[in-house]
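Recall the central idea of this unit: under ordinary conditions, the amino acid sequence of a chain determines the structure it adopts. In this exercise we apply that idea directly, starting from the sequence alone.
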Amino acid sequence: MKPKEILVFGASGQIGKNLIRKLTKNNYKVVAVTRNIHQKGYVLKTQANPGYLDIIELDMVNEEEIKHLYNNCSICINLIGILYEKNKNQFNKIHSLLPNLLSKLAREKKIDQFIHVSALGIENATDSKYAKSKLEGEISVRKNFENSVILKPSIVYSIDDSFTTNLMTLLSHLPIMPLFFNGETKFAPIHVSDLTEIIFQIISNEIKNETIECIGPEEISFKEIIQKLLKSIDKKIILIPMPLPLAKIQAALFEFLPSFLQGGRKQLTSDQLKLLKYDNLPSKKYRTNFDLGFKAEKKFEKEIDKYSYNWRVGGQYSKDKVSRKNQ
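Accordingly, the structure predicted from this sequence is:
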């Protein structure tokens, strides 16, 4: 029996790399789309056995080339997303216009499944350009492809992420950490392996016409996340609630500074600050992965301990790391 061919946009990101491993291990043929094969190709090639992965370099504005990719696929997964804009109107292009195009082509080509990954906790964030663009993308996908599956994960974390790793880099250098909105914003972090398992089950069980809020087993505040990361890297610093006017000034400063002065990515933007006003928790408008029987059991603190030694003094040979292994 010929394996189903799955077209993956955003294949070189955290979710994409882990998903490719999961799918190809289970005999699915994957076509991974990337904008720069020379930069990303060598990483993607290591994710699958020969014959199960094709890597395609593609300019995302070329509709005809995108349309051609649908000819042999039966499933399309869109993982493309950004946390901040490098260019004007980039949120709209990537989160709204691209999902609109991909879902239209999916309907046109009559593929079996279209899976779109959006974000959790964006319904009430009407003052955020990120949230508005994500919601517009969801609306377009539902309109264009009736049997689409939209996944709305909370923070997705792992050694490959840009959330916990970025925070641990900051915490390992800073003597003081500001807490925006008193650090009270709540999240339901989900490990990337749990999320990829959910996507795999959606494909295997041929689930259609569903919006799923994807969450981990815990609700954790931003302050608790920082405290758990500090404990894991064995660092003690001062946590100070930052008044909103000062936070806005800090965000504006980070937006102004070029990314290369901030470790290659913007540490904070005004739009991200707006998002931190809203809890990143299920809206109760849709079912969660737990409601559908897709468990996510990995606990945040236990999982980050597996890779936090990279930011610990002494690395993997630090005293605390060795003592934990011997327990």
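The chain has a mean pLDDT of 89.
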